[in-house]
Amino acid sequence: MRFLPYLLFLAASVALGAKVGDTYESVIAEKGAPKSQIQVGTVRLLGYTDVSIKLRDNVVVSISAVASPPATTRSPSSSVSSQQAPPAAGNGPAPATRSVDAIEAQLKDAVDRVNQIVNQPVPYVPRTPENSSQCTWFGNGWFHPGAAMPDFNNVDIRKTQETKNYEGYPYVSSNFTPDRMFSGSDIEFNSMTKIFYQDRTIPKKKLTEDEMVEINRLYRIIGRCFTELSARGVTPELK
Description:
Elements: H1 4-15, H2 24-31, E1 36-40, E2 43-47, E3 51-56, E4 59-65, H3 76-84, H4 100-118, E5 125-126, E6 135-138, E7 161-162, E8 171-174, E9 180-183, E10 187-190, E11 204-205, H5 209-231
Parallel strand pairs: 6-8
Antiparallel strand pairs: 1-2, 2-3, 3-4, 5-9, 7-10, 8-9, 10-11
Helix pairs in contact: 4-5
């Protein structure tokens, strides 16, 4: 069983005609246009019927085989009855397909709201010779470069909120904010909201439970918009 992940990797990267290290151009030349495509920053996800390919800076970094759903069979009688069955009462007509403009407008609204919540200002006090001894110094800045792309359809950002690096200190600061101190209990890091960090020279506010629940709700909207745009051949972007 321990060889199963390796075998799946071989199935995805060899038999399916792509491998880690390939360029975006070589993947398209080998497999053709993808069924869906999502791009966030330098990360691009290509969806094919048999494989999902992740690229960073237009180079393949991972490949996942797509499991085919089990085939289902229906008897002739069940097929006929399903064709003749009247629509269920109260269901009403199917909703009309939304336009790309409408989807992109909803996506922008959700992204704007997430940005507002994530990038709220953090209270601070001036850092002076008299109080600097109370301040813990983060000399390499607040955050490492890069950011992971959340699974907008499933992630719960409450589970990835990190505060332990800060909450034990009365005040913290960094080389980006040498004249200011922030209460360690007021700030956080969250890998699943980092992609929305607009100014990385300042720390990020510790979000409340209600704020995180709201972001989870907005993430579901973003995920749904991504899916709808991809189905129409439009590459979704966070902007």
